[in-house]
Amino acid sequence: MRHWLVLVLVLTLPAHADNLVDVYRLALRNDPTIRAARASLKAGLEAEKLGLAELLPKVEGRLGFNFTRKENLGRFPAGALLIPSNTKTNSTTHNWRLQLVQPIFDLTAWFHFRRGQELTREAKVRFTAEQQALILRVVEAYIEVLRARANLAASRAREAATKRQLDLAKERFDVGLAAITDVREAEAGYNLAVAARLADEGAVSVAMEKLTVLTGHHHGPLWELKADYPVAPPDPADRDAWVRFALQNNYDLKAADLEKEAARQAAHAAAAEHLPKIVANAGYGHSHTDAEQNNIKSDLNAAFEVDNRVGDVSLDLTMPLFAGGGISAARRQAQAEFERTRETWLGTRRTVQQATRAEYVNLMTSIARIKAGRLAVASAKASVEATRAGYEVGTRNIVDVLNTVQGLYGAERDYANARLDYVVAKLRLKRLAGTLTPADIHALNQWLEPPQTDDKKD
Predict the structure, then answer these.
(1) In this predicted model, what pLDDT tens digit does every residue of 319-367 receive, in sequence order?
(2) 435 shares its domain with 392
(3) Torsion 429-433-437-442 (CA) sign
């Protein structure tokens, strides 16, 4: 219950800058997928009640009113004589009846109830799975924006560095210390950097639009991941332990299992249609009739009233003998549906196993890439400084400088992406293990900080 309390707190947080909590709060309210999931949950919660209704007694009331006008014209024998008759009768009847029906033995209804229970459980589990999927979709979309912005920052830094190198090459050419080929090489490097920056600016816009699909709102610059965001190996460190835990707790797998069990109960219900059913009935009714009869020939009138009260109790046994093959066809159809859900469950189980192993590897790979990337950035910075110094004294050429500059900002880009990949892989692994909650959004949000002033101008 604790993580649902966190969910309530997240929903009631006041609006402020665009951080992860704000984006998640908007997605909870506006994402069409989660709203459709809420509607599916409401529908699924009624399945058990519908099944239970087939086992409970049913009471039916009926109220009626009837008016009848009747004329008799003819002759009727009375001994050896034929007596003419010409009468008109008007009658009005009011009636009501109560009927109670209680199934005594109906295995079909019982299995329908069991199916409804499984469907209601499945609806709850699937909604939880959709909530976890929303958390992951929000984080992935948010991280994609941060990734695009990190790539853009690296492209801008590369562009600025190549522009400085171009200016330096032109200055050296003007004083006769460099050849025109150095200027042309520097121009080519600068133009490539500009092209890369333009592509990364477009990627930022595309990533922001994808985030808007989830929230229904346009967002400004998002909060950035802090430089000291902690990177740690998963706990437990054993990959097989994560797989075993996922097989027990993954909500997609639980939903597939409940769907299979619901189909099993439906197959039992279809098979039980061949069996007899016993139903108890009890009823009570009352009718009152007012009648008036007029003999036109003798001009005689007669009026009378009739009251009827009827109570009855019955126990009925019914058993289908032949239904055109429909019962057998329904039984075979239900069995085939159960076999389909069983294979779906098996496929989901294998997918969860494979995905958990793969995501564990991705997480460990991201950790290794972060460590290597940190060292690569430091080495690239030292290489750029050394190459520039060599260029100034004539031991290195402009191509060497441009290559080391490109290598530096490529290393910075890879390092930033590795950190973001770690965040996503960590939450994906928790999603597969069934432990992802809104508390993870709150925890990650604590490691975000407002963007720098320069970034806000993007």
Answers:
(1) 998 888 999 999 999 999 999 999 999 999 999 999 999 999 999 999 9
(2) yes
(3) negative
